[in-house]
Amino acid sequence: MCDSICEKTASALRNAFVRGDLSARSITEAFFSRIEQVEPSIGTFITLTEEATLRRADVLDKKRASGAPMGTLAGVPVAVKDNLCTRGVKTTCASRALKDFIPPYSAHAVDRLIEEDALIIGKTNMDEFAMGSSTENSAFKITRNPWDTGRVPGGSSGGSAAAVAARMAPLALGSDTAGSVRQPAALCGVMGLKPTYGRVSRYGLVAFASSMDQVGPFARNAEDMAMLLGAIAAPDRRDSTCTNHAAPDYLETLERPLNGLKFGMPKEYFTTDGLSPVAAEALDGARKVFEGLGGQFKEISIPHSRIDVEDGRISSFAVACYYILCTAEAASNLARFDGVRYGHRTHGAADVLEMYSKSRSEGFGDEVKRRIMLGPHVLSSGYYEAYYLKAARVRRLIAEDLERAFDEVDLVFAPTTPSPAFKIGEKTADPLEMYLNDIFTSSCNLAGNCAISIPCGRSPEGLPLGLQLMGPRWEEQRLLSVSHAYQQQTRWHDAAPHHSP
User: Fold this and answer.
1) 306 CB-side CA count, 13 A
2) The pTM is what?
3) 168 contacts 181 by C-beta, under 8 angstroms
4) I need a surface site. Which of 160, 312, 379, 445 has the fewest CB within 10 A?
């Protein structure tokens, strides 16, 4: 019974609950049984909320029995990345600095889940403060890829992606600052969406790089993705960057046909040694599917996202630009974690300066420290114009490149990652090599556009590969309808790793 319930999609679970075929309690018990079965080998969750979720399930069962209207996610378990605040439940950002922090409020996206009668089952592991591409930077554990536990699930939202892939949750929330939803989605064989900047409120999302952070959903198919995005995309006055316009009904337009939709293939992405042959082959197969549906393809250029390879070393304008801007913002945002008001505080310090220094040294991991130190450097006198100001100008050029591209085409067709999942520990000794996992995803965050990753193939080792579609601002409907059309012709999104039932 547990296996059959956990294999159901989110929409199937909601329908079964609303009809009375399944109780919220039986759904909850099934997923916690599944977590008990596979969590030890994958390391997906930092905090589980079994008792509270079972109580919530009983409330939902009574609500349904009373005949009251049910929310759009009624009875559906959802896993939440541990940088989204949850009232009364620890929110650690996978850092020793916040290992015992219990927020007095919830993030807007979390509140929306509760309002729509979802069942929040726990907080997922991540790279510390969302700084990483492999979920190896967590202070508490390494999350493993359900398709091969010797490999990474991607990051920084690796726990959320692994939870959906391993059928420990049908839906999950993450955050995407340079690809942190799309990249782990691709490596774990699920869907991941980075909404337009401002589509989903950032209230209650612990800030990393505020001008690029965006809450994003994970799901197994486009229908479930539409359900989840529709639930969390709502105006919120507490976030000044959040749109005041209500989100459209994403489910209503899911069946929209392609009708000669134009796809642009950036020559900068497809004529580089940075893209592995196996990923290129999977993308070619996806292109043929879209052509069979009536899609049209043309080569385009987004020159300031150029990828160069020299002496075997890859470089990217977009990645360099991103890492200058994000470290500047991170240094400012993380200044609040000083051990004074909340968070880790060292013991036995001789004075205030020593208390600050030791609290932060003990609380932060190496990658977070690296970015905090780089931030003031790129902003300092003598370096501001050479680094930060130049990066800000390149960011504008990247945004303009994409604007021009969308004058020619409807969507940009691109890889999500350069290759399938790499082995645990393979890139930890070289931060620059790790950063290059974002070569195909960071441009979208710099520009504020929306983008989605869809499973599109397998490597010879059986590892998932992802296709990325980028859209103009506020065009999530198109991304979802195109993804749905693709999934009606393929079965990549239905495949389960060997850790699944």
Assistant:
1) 7
2) 0.96
3) no
4) 312
